[in-house]
Request: fold
Amino acid sequence: MLVSATASPSSAQQGEAGEWRAGAYSFSDEMGGFIIESVTGRGTRDNPIVLTETLNSSSPVTLVIRSVWPIRPFDSAAFYDNGILYMRIVARNGSGHGWVEFEFELQELLHKASVFGDGLSFDQRSLRKDNISSDTFAEFSRDFEPYDKLLFRHGKVDPGKSVGFSFLITDFTPRPTFYLVQDPRIPST
Reply:
């Protein structure tokens, strides 16, 4: 199912199996280990993409994010991938194990660490911290070079419960596809 250029940028539609469209992007669980349940929003500060999912294990999973509209960096028009994506992920713990940390990693190329030159990050050029939060984890840290990672800690998500994360992804040299690796952490003992 294709989204026409006249579709509302805040509406979300499910396309092919495992692919959801909202704003200028599609989101896919095609790599397995989790199931996307819904996606809404435009990806702006006032109307972030809200992706609801269930993770079936405590192993890392990879969300595939693709541009579905033309790429025009920093363009404020509604129907472009402009390299600025506000997201909220609501993850339900379907693993059967409690999560004590949760890490996100951005990758421009699958299985390769993101580096400064690729332009993709969790808003690396800004020192602002108000774009990053969790409703369950009390602290976070950002790790840049040679990775773009965001680690949430000091909290717990029991099996069957959900946790929300909000963050800003920036891409100063947008590509049509990038990846968000999600890694729920369980106690080591």
